[in-house]
Each structure stands twice: as C-alpha cells, then as structure tokens.
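Subject: mismatched residue count in predicted assembly?

I count 1015 residues in my input, but I want to confirm that the predicted structure covers every chain. Input:
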Amino acid sequence: MSDSKKQNRNRRRFLKQSLASMAGFSSASTFSALLNTANAAVTPTGDDYKTLVVVNLNGGNDSLNMLIPNTTDEYQQYRSPRPNLAFDKSSLLPINPIGMSTGSFAVNPSMPGIQSMFEAGDLAFVANVGGLVEPITKAEFLASNRTKKIPAGLGGHNTQAAYWQADHSNRINTTGDGWGGRMANEFIINGTLPTSIAINNGNNLFQRHDAQSFYNVGLSGLISLRDFSGPSANQGILARRRAIEALNQLAIASPDPFIQHAGALFDEGIDLNVTLQAALSNIEDLSDRFPSAVSGAGTSFASSLARAAEMILIRERLNMRRQVIFLEQAGFDTHSKQGENHLALMTDLGAFLAAFNALLKDKGVHGSVLTVTTSEFGRNLASNGDGTDHAWGAQHIVMGGPVDGQKIHGTFPSLELDGPDDYNGLGRMIPTASVSQYGATIAKWFGVPDNKLSTVFPNLTNFVGNETLGFLG
Amino acid sequence: MPVEDASRFLMQSTFGATYDDIVELSNSSYRAWLNRQFAMPVTKTVGYAESQGWIENYPLILARGTDSSLFNVMLTAPDQLRQRVAYALSQIFVVSREVSNGIDERPLFYLDYYDMLAENAFGNYRDLLERVTLNDVMGFYLTMRLNAPANTQVGPVGHPAAFFVTSPDENYAREIMQLFSIGLVELDIDGTPVLANGEPIASYTQDTVENMARVFTGWNYQSANPSQTNFFNLGIPSDTRPMISFDAFHDKGPKTLLNNVTLPANQTAVKDLEMALDNIFNHQNVGPFIGKLLIQHLVTSNPSPAYVERVAKVFNNNSTGERGDLKAVVRAILLDTEARNGHKTLPDQFGKYKEPFVRQMALWRGLKARRKVNNRNLLTAYDENFLNRFKQFPLRAPSVFNFYQQDFVPSSAFRQESMVAPVAQLMDTESTIGIASVYEEYVQRHHDDANNDFANSPSDLLLDTREWQALIPDDLSSVDALIERLNVVFLAGAMTDDMRDVLRSVHASTNPSSPYVVQHKWEIVIDLLNILMLSPQYSVQK
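Triage response: the counts match. Full output below for your records.
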C-alpha cells in the first residue's frame, strides 16, 4: 500500500475523530476539503457559489442532426450524403445567431426548447470540438509520415470517451485522472460533500482524482443499510454495526489493495449517506418538473437532472461553493434506426434541458450554474443506410446564466464531403477546437487561475494564444 | 487437497459451492472434476423456459421470463463450469437487453444467444466467433443485419423517396476487432503491448474498419423472409436460426484486412465472411487477448505475463495442433500454478473482486437456497428490484463495453502497482451501500427460523440455515466451528485471526461483555453471515 494512500486515510480518520463531537451533519466527510489544502490555490468565500453540470451524451451524438446549416448551399451539403436522415428544410426550427445572417442555422425539429433558449440568450453552441493533442490540418493529418500527434484509438468509444474526460495524452489511457477531478482539486472547499458529484455514474473518468473523492448519487435516491440508519437502542443492530465497522477497519489497514479499497469505499459511503440523509430531508421532489421521456433511457436522464438539481439546492446548506456534477444521457450510438431513435434522444435532451434551465431560474441559481454537453465523438455526415458511424469533431451545447448566449462559437465545419474539414470523404470532421480549449474556457469561469489552466489541461500549451474559446464571455 | 484449496477452485469455476461440494472436490482431483464437468450435457435456458410453458405463451412472459430462465440455470445447473464460462463469454461477446425497441418481449431471442455461448464454451473459438457473428441477436445489437454496400438503394418497396447508402455500417466491424478478438494494440504472446519507439502499435486503423465493414454486408434474418431483390424486408427476430446472406446486397470489391491480407473481388458474402473471420482468428493477438480476458473473469485481475503466455500458447496450440480450443484454454487457466498458488506466491497481486451478481449467487448456492412455494417464477419482481442495485445482471450490460472495463484502475494504490480491478468499476460510495443493502436484506429477512418456517419472507428464494445451525452447541457457547465453516465456504481460508475475534465478539454467549443476548442458533448463523457478507474481505476472491 502506498504511503500517500495511508496518509489520506489516516488524515481522514483523524478528522472523523476530531469532528465526532460536533453537532449536525458536519461530522461526516470533509475528506476532499482537507486533502485540498496541500496544493490548492483558490478558496471561494461568501456567496461565490458555482456549479458545473456536465451532460455526457453517451455513444457519440450525431450533432449534425442537432444544429443544422439553414442556408441553401450548406443545407444541400448536409442533406445529400444523408437523404434519409436529413430533416426537410421546412421542418427545421430556425435560429438567429448573433453575428451571423438571420436564420442561417436551425435546430432539430424536436427541440423547440433549445430554439427558444438560444433565442433568449440562455444557450449557445460551440462548433467542431473534439479530442486534439495539438492543432492539426487535414494535410497534416493525412500525411503518410504524420508528425503531429493525435489521440490514440480514434473512433473507439472508450478511448475517445477517455480522451474527452481526461484530456491527458496521445496514448491510449482510460485510467489516471480526469479534468473534472483536476479542476475540483484547484479549490479549497470547506463543505461536507466531495466537490465532485456523479449522478448514477460512479467511477467515471472525468471526476477521478487521487486527492478528490467523489460521491455517486443513485437515481432513486438514497439507499440505507438497516443496521446503519441512525441511532438505535436495539442491541442486535448495535452489535452487528460494531462488528461490521471493526471488519471494515481491519480492511482499511489491510496490505491487500482490493480489500483496502473496498473498505475505504464502504467507510466513506456510510458517512456520506448520513450527511446526505440529513441534507436532503426536506427537499421538495423535483421529478415532476421534467416532462415524460420519449427515448429509451430518457427517464433515467430526467431523474439524473432532478438529482443534480437537488444537489445544487443543498449546496449552500453544505457550504459547497464549488460543485462539479457529471451525468449522462445514454443511447447515442445510432448506427441503426437513427431516424426514430435520435429524434427521440433530441426530443428528451431539448425538453429536459429547458426544464432544468427553468427550474434553476425558478430557484434563483441560474446565474451560477453552467451546463455543458460532452460526447466521445460526433458521427459522420454520410448515411450508412439506417444510421451513422463514429467520427470526430462535433457541435456542443453550453447553457445557463454564465453563457455568452445566442451565438455559435468557434467555426462550424464545412460539410462538403472530402472538403477542408472532412478527412476521408465520408464526413468525419477534423476538430477545429480542442477538448482542452473547451474545458479551459469552463475552468476559467469556474475560477481556476490562468496560471493553473495548463495543470488541469496539459495539452493547452499546444494552443498558446487560443487557450479559451470565449463562449462564457 | 485441503478444503480451502478446493473452495478457491470452485470460486473460480462455478457460481458458488456448498460445503458438501467442497469436500467432494477435496476428496477428488481438479482434473477429474474438470473432466466430469466437460462431459456434462448443456443445461439450456431455452429448455428451462420451455419447461415452464413460457415459450408457447411468450407474450405473457415478457422480460421476467428471460431473467428468470437465465437466473435459474446459473443458480441450479449441474454443469456449473460451463455456465460460469458462458457468463464470462457473455461479458466478452456482449449483447444486452438494455435497448429500447420492444424486442425484449421475445425471451427466446436472448436465451438462445446465451445458450449458444454455453454450447460453444468448450468448443473452438473460431466456431464461436462465427456463431456470434451470424446470431440474429448480435445482428440486431451491433447492427450488422441489413448492412448494405455503398450506393445501395434503401427503403421498403415503393418508398416514395429513394435514397442510397453512402458507406456501410462500421459498428460490427469495429467491435469484433476491438472487443471480441484482438484489441486496440499489437500484443506479445504474454499479453503486453508491442512497442515501437516506446509507443504501442495500433492493431488496426479506420481504413481496416471500413474494409471490414464492407465484408459484413448482405446479411438478414431468415425469419424476415427477405429475397435477393427485397433485402430490406424488416421482419422481426423471432427464431433462433443464424442470419443468411444475400449476395445482391454484398459489397463485391476487393478488401484489405489485418496483416495486409486481401480478399479478392467478386466473392460471395459467405466466402468473404469466412475469410475475414479466419483473418481475425489467425491474428497473433487473439490468444493473449482472449486468454487474458478469461483469466481476469475467472481467476485474477492481474495475471503475470508468464501466466498469460502459458494460456495463450495453449490457445495457439492445444498440443494436438488445434488453434482456439476453448476447453484446453479453460483447463489451462484453472490448472495453472498461478491460479492454484497465486494466493501464496503473489499475495498482494493475486485475486479479483467477486462480481456483485456472483457474490449473491454464492450466498444462495452456499446456503442451498430453495423456494418458499412451488412458484415457477424463481426470480420475483421483488428479487429483481433488489438485484438492480448490483448494476449487473446477465445480458443487461449498459453497452457492448460490458458492465466494466478491463483496464479500470480504482485508486492510486492500484496505479502505483500497475494493477487493475475491473469489477471495481461497479463499486463506488453509493453502490457499495446499495450492494451491501441487498446482502443485508437477503440474509436478515429471507431465511428459515427455528421452525424452518418461511412464512414471513417477502421473497421466494430462501436460505436454509439448518446445517449451519448444527455447528453451534446447544448452549450457544462457541461459534468457532461456524466461523471455520464460513471461512472455508466464503473466504477460501483467508480469514485472519483478527476477523475471527470480531465474529466471536458479537453475541453475549461467546463474549460476556457483549450486551447482545440471543436465544436461538439461527439468530447467530444469520448475524454472522450478515456481518461476513457485508465485509470488504468477502468482496475479494483470493
């Protein structure tokens, strides 16, 4: 067992003991906060609350059917390689991006909520974002003796999801830490929950960091152990609880990393459960703020957003001045039956984001919550008959008070097959904005100092002068 | 062999053992046990569903009939080794019912897929790969079915807006290489990446994917009644026959595959498919890739390269010149010196997390779980609701990437030792409590009592504590024999003295300073079982 891990655990045990006599739910985990103190740079105070909500579109979103060019020539370039998947021009919902000609773009016909949020300035798109180690042109990409680095495993779900969430190197690496975790680690948060909160997504790479624990919230609320749900006078419960805790302490001290890790999770899970039970005790049920789902996994997605909203609503009670929340909408790997399935996904995405946005406004936290999408890759423009395949760059949604809204930030790719952005004739777009830049823009808003951005995004040094994309003003 | 060693072997090769099973193996030999298992007939989930009258009445069965059939066979089938290997194969050649399209209502569709894996678990990998490829559920899941070449006109007959395929579907082409056979990077025989200038070498490119995608064109379900001119007859998957080919909808161009093997132009869909599967099968990665995956599913998350190499060599040649003999591979995995002695020779590296689903199965099997009433639906809605907390149930992975990734590293402690713990991806601060709550619920509420009465249990599947109660003297003054039995059956002898002390300290009858007084043996059995099941130590198979 590593010394640092032992130290972490020891520090935490010490903390638990020293807080044991204090009142309220602060006797639970302040683990991440303490660990922060060694190298953190920023201690938010007062009413400086910020929450980032990452909505990962799992499977690779076909963003070319989400944000659609609406001018005559560009629309034809969109339609002709995917005649069966393209929407009729008359059905599109036009938008009027600031700085572009009126109605030059449109959104998916099933996304009226996205259209109205865009027009109201609550939402923007960021164009052609993807995993990049460094900027690369089509000629550089296709060069037989390519010298520019690209993410390894291009086109693979897990490899590119890892690249989006970790942004660490050109090697295949689905381990290590993620930029959500690294970002959280730049803050000292004296709250009672980890800064990183996953919704139904424990062990995502995005939030992983050695010095930052993260808590996973299940979709159906908290699950309690019968023998660990509060004070009891039952000798059986007390005896079992003592024994289970004793075995757990033996596990935490075990030289076996498997046993040790399982013990640490159990210990921390019990503590966080107690904290959250107290904090959530009189929070209203937000589930009915979301419309009924039409896509397969839509109900889970709606529940995830409801759980995320709950976590935001208790942030002040728990002194959580920074929160990084990660959740997913599943089902985007639309190789087949894209027509009906992707339409349903877009319907739910649009409706639920609109409901979430309205809810945050209603609760007065809209100005301090940023919601952004991620997805392992975009899909290619060409139809395979019934769907689309794995590609690279894609358009993304950024939403909330902090957003410089009603704009399409970055450069929308040319949709010409084998054109300047398409690398092999089937409409796989080489990104013109990197995950590093997308993330750094977010991190800067979150409060990460400029001189720490390259700590969070090591590849940012390859984008000097263009570190951020400006979509947050 | 000692009962502890026999228990370890059965943890690796079954869904759990009773003490009787352990003693029986202990008095026999691993080889003899393996040979008995290899010779057993396949217990089929379809057969179970038929025996319950679920096939002819399938509209009434819906999803639970599928779950219940899978569950019942895994829990009770005598051919446990085959079922355990089939379960591992179902996590490599993944199809999942977690898709939203209505076909979930046809239980045969998925049960047949699982039975196909079980039937081929001790066959040849090349045959298995072909059956997987042409199985209608896989054709549906990874969308190879109805895959058509570029420029094919698509649409039902008479479709007003004719349109054309721009390029074939790459889904199956990509995943058969990444997940079912060779993986992302070139491997040495011991499973470690081949390096060039310090960097791994990609085992295929986007170009390979596109060529493979053209191979897998021209296939549809038999039951869809397609024809050479009406390929796109959708139909429904309702039988268990493999997909069939339609050469009019097969890409006839030449194709360049792995290791620069080329397929000539104008071959039939069948010929192209056979040659492409041969091309994949003969890639040097398959032995170490598949061998290591099976080792990780059954024995240990971090096999030494030498262990992987020994197994890969058996994959490459079973000693009679056959490549891909899975029976030989399974035997090599389980009889390997590392599988048998790794707990002593590599104490901090050897072992794995038990999968949450398997952990629960081991509890039920270890305590001879039986039914309260003769309810044909062994798995009730109540049980299913609880099992959902595992985030793991057969054929219900969230995607083709399974429930967890094989390279998952849960903490810095693992990373510093270059170790992985795939199953740990199911374990977080919330799911750990959720999983524990299931064990607590089943142990505390789903057992017999002093009268062997199950009346108050909400579940149909109940633990039988009688032979465990018999290990406690009538005056309740010692739990040592009970503790030792728990140690053998559930920890393969890994219990430390500290753990024994904790278990002895619970009840007043064995610890005068404990205020917890009980009257019955069954209470003691249930309490100690409860405590052990929730322990981190039980979550690990060493």
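Confidence is low (pLDDT under 50) at residues 1-38 of chain A. Marking this ticket as 'not a bug'.
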